[in-house]
Amino acid sequence: MNGVAMDFVTNAEDPELAQSISQRFERAGPGAIQEPIMAVLPGLALDAIISVLFITSFISKNGGNGFELFANGAGIGQLLQLIPLGIGAFYGVSALKKAVRLVLPSNE
C-alpha cells in the first residue's frame, strides 16, 4: 500500500468513521482477523529446519543419549556442549508457536 495516497485521521477528527470501524470489529468478533498462511509458513519452515539441524548436531556430537557427557561431572566444557540443544529447543518452540497460529484464530 502506498502511504502517501492514504489520509490518516485521528478518532477525534472523524468520530463517525471511528464509530463505524469500531462497530465492524465488534460484528466480526474475536478471531476474525487471521494471518494468511503464506505469512506464517516460511517462518515456520525455517524455524523447524534450524531446530532439527541444531538438535541433530547435538545428538551426533554427544551420542544417542546426549547427557552421558555429564558422567564425569559437570564442567564448563560439558555445559558449552549443551548450547546446540538450547538453540534447537528455542527454534522448536518458535516453530510450535507459529504452527498454533495457523490452526487457532487470533484473539486480537
Describe this structure in words.
61% of the residues lie in helices and 0% in strands. Helix 2 (37-62) runs antiparallel to helix 4 (83-103). The protein has a domain at 35-103. It is elongated and about 70 Å long. It contains four helices and no strands. The mean pLDDT is 81. The longest helix is centred in the middle third of the chain and has 26 residues, at 37-62. It has 108 residues and is mostly helical. It has helices at 15-28, 37-62, 76-80, 83-103.
List the helices and strands and how they pair.
Layout: H1 15-28, H2 37-62, H3 76-80, H4 83-103
Q: What is the structure about, briefly put?
A:
Helices cover 61% and strands 0% of the residues. With 108 residues, it is an all-alpha fold.
